[in-house]
Each structure stands twice: as C-alpha cells, then as structure tokens.
Design brief:
Layout lengths: L1 H23 L9 E2 L5 E2 L1 H17 L4 E4 L3 E3 L6 E9 L1 H5 L6 E8 L2 E9 L4 E6 L4 E3 L2 E2 L12 E4 L11 H10 L2 E3 L3 H9 L5 E4 L4 H4 L2 H7 L3 E3 L12 E4 L4 H8 L1
Parallel strand pairs: 3-5, 11-12, 11-13
Antiparallel strand pairs: 1-2, 3-4, 5-6, 6-7, 7-8, 8-9, 9-10, 13-15, 14-15
Helix pairs in contact: 1-2, 5-7
Length: 256
C-alpha cells in the first residue's frame, strides 16, 4: 500500500505540473470569460487544464472515479479511488493576471484524502504530499512553522470582508484582533504558505471539495492541521481553516 501511494503521489505531482504549463499558455493573455450558473468565471484555460488531467488519469487508472469543478463526476460512485480536480483554483485571480492561482489534484481512497498536489505555475512552486510520505516543496521536504501563538503569527485569507454573509463576522474579527499580521494571500496559495512555514493560519468562510481535497494531506503531512471552523478534519465541511498546529488550540478557543 505504501508503494502504491508513492506511485500515486508521483503521478499527481506530474500531471499537476503538466496542467500548470497549459494554464501558462493563457496567463496574462487575452481571454474570453464565460459565466457559470453561480456567476463565477470560467475560461478556456480552466477547461483545457481539466480535460488534460481527466485524460491522463483515465488512461493510467481507468477504474478510478474523477470529480472535477468544470465537468462534474465520472466513473463509478463506489470506486475505491476518486480524484478531485480544480483545474484553476483562483480563476478570478488568473484572469486579472495575478500569479497566485493554482492547479489542484487531490485523491480520496474510500472517501479519505490520501494524496494532494498543488502547482502554482506562475510562481514556480509545487507542493505535494501523500499520507505517510511527508510533504514536499519543489523537491525538498517542507514543514509548518513553529511559531507558538497567534500574536506572533501571520494569518492569510481568501476573503477579507463580508463575513456576516457566512455567519462568521464576529469570529473573523476576533482572529484579526488576535493575530500579529494579516494578509489576503488567498485561494490555495495561502494554504501552501502555511504548509511551507511562511504563514501560521489560512482560512476560508466557504469552500468546495475541489478546493480542499488536495490540501488536507498536504497540511497534515507538513505537520499542520486542515479542518472546518469547528476543528473537524474534513474536506467536505464547505469551509476551511488550516494552522501550523502550534496555534490550533488557541485559534479554536477563540472562534468556537
């Protein structure tokens, strides 16, 4: 089983890297933007990235299921392995020409996240992990920071305002008042900052499974946490908070 996960991790890393190169062909270029049913943007880069990822997975692992942001679920509901794809996490960032977007490849085994790879191609960074195999950043092992308190910590977030929409305004304000530094380096990049020791907390008041599936194994293998706002480790909580582990208890006491 360990060798199988290592093989799956290597594959996830490889296809996330290759899909990132597809997105770079369109990055900071002229792009037609379509709107999905929820009014979020989608581009040819999103579609081509997901199409590549799906084709690569289906060719290598035809019995695996695939859930992608753009094309939904294919493969059997009862498949042991299910790949979770976000071909461009941060499309709004991408279309503005800002480099903090990522290609996300996650893998669930019997419903549990076991592999994650996130490529931030415009920044030249890829972070990837598998359960029991550690977390890696551009080929070298990486760990969360050892900063012991929120008062000394950097908190990053995708959303910086209107937390009342999510019933989290008071809790978010308490986090802001307690932390040492706050920045809006959001989407997947914020979570990679935590995994690589450059920030202590990353958070989102709302999140889909394709935004989260790759991140839980990355954060846990780096020594941190990835949970919902109640502190439960899950990729299906429709919200997320990650920490370096050292500040987790303090953060939960602050917002529960």
């Amino acid at each position: 089983m360990a060798d199988e996960l290592r093989e799956l991790l290597d594959f996830a890393h490889q296809i996330a890297w290759q899909a990132g190169k597809i997105t770079l062909r369109y990055f900071q270029g002229e792009l037609a933007i379509d709107r999905k049913a929820d009014e979020s943007p989608v581009t040819v880069a999103d579609r081509e990235s997901e199409a590549f990822l799906r084709a690569a997975i289906s060719a290598r692992y035809p019995d695996h299921a695939i859930l992608g942001e753009e094309e939904g679920l294919t493969g059997g509901e009862g498949a042991t392995y299910r790949w979770i794809l976000d071909p461009i996490d941060g499309t709004k960032t991408f279309v503005r020409g800002v480099p903090l977007y990522g290609v996300m490849v996650g893998l669930l085994r019997e419903g549990q996240p076991v592999v994650g790879a996130v490529n931030v191609p415009a920044m030249g960074e890829v972070v990837y992990a598998a359960k029991g195999h550690g977390c890696w950043w551009n080929g070298r092992p990486c760990r969360v920071s050892q900063v012991p308190s929120l008062g000394e910590g950097l908190v990053v977030a995708t959303v910086a305002h209107r937390y009342e929409r999510y019933g989290k305004a008071e809790r978010f304000q308490r986090i802001l008042e307690a932390c040492g530094l706050f920045r809006t380096w959001g989407d997947c990049y914020g979570y990679l900052l935590v995994a690589t020791g450059r920030a202590e907390v990353a958070l989102d008041p709302a999140m889909n499974i394709w935004d989260a599936a790759a991140l839980l194994p990355i954060l846990e293998e780096a020594g941190g946490t990835f949970t919902d706002w109640q502190g439960v480790a899950t990729v299906e909580g429709n919200e997320a908070i990650s920490t370096n582990g050292a500040v987790f208890k303090e953060l939960m006491e602050l917002i529960k």
